[in-house]
């Protein structure tokens, strides 16, 4: 059973098996086909992103797993704006913190259907995926404070991916876009220095991740590997999106791990970590997912990094943007700064997209954290 989202709160149950969906979804798709209706324009995306918005959903139905997450919420928003009918999985459809921001999106009342599913339950996604044209598999736990890495991170990431792909196989899905990560790309012991260009031919090494007790990184590495193997064995067309640290505005009311990385620089901390990460805007990440589904020639892995920057550089940017905000003055250790490196932009740009500059992404994150009262200034 799917839950038909409504901003007003009450829900209507629609049967997946009987293929009954909101009639407006079909009407909208039909009008689009006839050239009479266009999804609303997207005023917030970058110019070349906006150009890429020419594509039409043609009334297609897609599934987004983990719909209430940080990245997925933007994905759902942009898919609805593009005219898609979206089925989004949530673990608890009765938790308003996970659903209200989705139900409030433009088009949600007519074309968003929430359904309950858990990565660890076999067949959990069958009903939500059956009859869809495409699936975006974003659900996977992303946090670092774990006590049991196997149960908390590895099982949901790997078994969850296989469960979702098994449902896709049963549902004859045309293409699955899997949200992987730069975590599955760059952690293999190869040196990463300013002259090195990391690209989609790199794969993280499970041994290196395990040695360094990088459990989240391991979960993404194993999950992507499992996805490619399953796809090959079962002839499923998958594309992976491999973003680095994702920042930019939050749609959901709760704090996610990557936005917390910015919050931790403006909430009174006295030191910043001695780490260099790639950074990318959440709207660019969401749009890349959509184009990876829509562009027939899209294939393989898409590394998404606007810029690799050390935390000291982030602090410098924040200080320039908000001179009165107290930011950490010192690095957490006295070792040499972890070097930056480059990440190839070619494949991302082949989707017709351009990156939001890191300065804009940081500003959008801070404004959003302020608006949602995670920080006061
Ligand atoms: N943010 C980043 O910097 C970043 C970078 C690279 C890749 N990624 C990947 O992007 C995806 C989304 O990340 P995010 O940053 O948007 O994280 P997030 O806001 O924490 O979202 C994670 C989502 O996964 C769902 N989930 C976790 N365990 C689940 C389970 N057992 N069953 C069903 N759903 C489960 C959560 O559902 P509930 O809402 O029910 O908790 C939530 O919707 C993940 O695959 C992550 O690895 C993130």
TrEMBL record:
Residues 62-298 form the NAD-dependent epimerase/dehydratase domain. Pfam families: Epimerase. Keywords: Oxidoreductase. One of its GO terms (molecular function) is oxidoreductase activity, acting on the CH-OH group of donors, NAD or NADP as acceptor. CDD domains: FR_SDR_e. This is NAD-dependent epimerase/dehydratase domain-containing protein.
